[in-house]
Amino acid sequence: MTVQATTIMPSDTTTDELGTQSIPAIKAIDLCKIIDDRPILNGLTFQIETGKCTALLGANGAGKTTLMHILATLSSPTAGQLNIFGKPITRSSVATRREIGMIGHQSMLYRDLSALENLIFFGRLYSVDKPAVRAMDLLHRVGLADRAPDAVRTFSRGMTQRLSIARALMHHPKLLLADEPFAGLDVPSVLAVEQLLADLVEEGCTVVLSNHDVGRTLQITDHVLVLHHGQVVLDTPSGSITELQITEQMCRGPEGMGST
Amino acid sequence: MNKTFFQNWGSLVYWFLTLIAFAVGVWLVFAVVPTEETMGPIQKIFYLHLPIAFNAFLVCTVTFVCSVGYLWKKQGYWDDLAVASARVAVLLCSIVLLTGMIWGHSAWGVWWTWSPRLTFSLVLWLLYVVYLVIRPSIEEKGRRSLVCAVYGIVAYLDVPLVYLSVRLMPDIHPRSIELAPEMTWVLLYWMLPVVMMTVGLLCEGYSVQRRVSEQQNQTQYATRQTATSIHPTGELT
Amino acid sequence: MKTVLRQLWFLVAKDLQIEARSHQTLGLVTVLGILILVVLGLGLGRQELASGSSATAVLWVAYLFSGVLCFEKTMSVERQDGALAGLMLAPVDWGLLFVAKLIGNLVLLGTLVIIITAAGVLFLGFNVMAGFWPFVIITSLGMLGFAAVGTLFSAAVSSSRLAGGLLALLIFPICLPLVITSIQMLLSVFRDANEIDSSGLAILIAFDCIYLVISWLVFELLLEP
Prior knowledge:
Helix content of chain B is 80%, strand content 0%.
């Protein structure tokens, strides 16, 4: 498996010229992940700019969640190099984890604790100043202030998802990884979450977002990365590409990769 | 094709030699070595019992080393060898238990007593039987190898502790046996066929296991590929 | 160091808070333990129990089975909504997650042992006062090793969506030296009215040290978001 990804990506030299003022939030070089002797990620090389909202697209099984887990330092790549905010990542990069917030498929909350208790607990683990104040701020922001003392068990899917976003934001992360944050949400909740993410980008947070709705994603992101069979097949600004082109890439990928 | 033929041929020769070594061993035991006075002919089981017990420890060590190897390198073949060695360990432990029980029956008239030695063999057997029986319960292959590797390490560290703990139990085992010089060298000779058998079983078990897991990989990979390639465009837009 | 201790305290407090809120573990586990005592007590009959030699073994059976259930329950709290991934994302050393879980389990296990032993005194006529301090020392050392092995394998098993039997299957054989040693020591204390056996004590301490260290080292390998 030594197929190189043929991608349209900003070359390193141009980044260096521009990159004097900002280090890329994520820089991955030849990232590989092999699970059960089969390659899930197959030599990913890409770069995510700081302060941008980047979409990670791909069909089911293309390696999005695996990549998200690696970016979140939850699992380590089999080979390759990963820098987050210029620092190399190993499995025990405790300090770098402070910069990263993540929204996953699951809520990552304790259902027997109340919304406020959950936020305070996670805030304390990150040594957040005045966790109770910060937690109430965020609850206001995601519109759950009136449900603060209720157990998460009693929340609807949309409310849980909003709370899980608040959980991810407790420690003011500079990089937010959102793995399908809209899954299972109704339209009003989707809009609310989109607005939240847009505000975050406005505030200077780097957001990496994976999603199934290609059209919507193109509208709300600055940049797209398309994965296919564990390789980057497209790396381009959102404005320069249409939904149809992306869908084609997601379904086909580079020549010869379909039948391995 | 040619290679497999020679491999099969080679293993056939190997097993034939092992059989001869066993036959010579049996001849030595029944024709050359004097019969022990107090125990009678049943004492001859000792020539099988001791080398097998010794080899059982060696094989457990192989499982341990492979488990460490797997945790370190995360490569499937370490796990395959660990499984093969655990199988052999269970087999050898079973033989040790059986021969021990036969000995016990002739010495004390009961098939089982909670003597330290017998308890020790039983616990060892249990430890490695569990290694084998938990494997099918864990579906995902990487996870299974990981859990089993951890278990393999933990179980091996348990062996000396089991040995120490059974010594607290009341003992009726005969401690030292006076060995005639012929007995010693026949015993040493018996190490040869037993080691040959152990190594042979390990190799055969490993190649079988390797083939099985390679097949599993291929089928899993194939299903994954079809699952990702047949994707209705409608769902993505 | 100070932040590490603070984090440890928050992790343990969170476990205990959830337990206090839901009561799902302790209630289940103690009732199971008492049930086991009753079943075995009925099976053994008055004469065996009066001799004082079987009560310790019966108690150990109850500790082991309800302990395994306890480990399973405390870990399933983390797995329910992927909360474990939340912990792993936090700037916490993953070994610390093991220590926190171990302490939480030890608190529950301690409560469990007290309740079950009290039930044993009541139902089995177990005279714990005949050797109270030896009993406390032996049982605490035993439970420490048991909790170390149990916490380690609870991380291994609960992610594999497996039935409860498997955890017991993994833990029991490993804990056999602990069981053999503890029961032999308790027998010598309660039946033969001897002093505490120092070589047995050494084995218990060795077991605890080995498994605390190895579990702490290996635990993070078994963690999986």
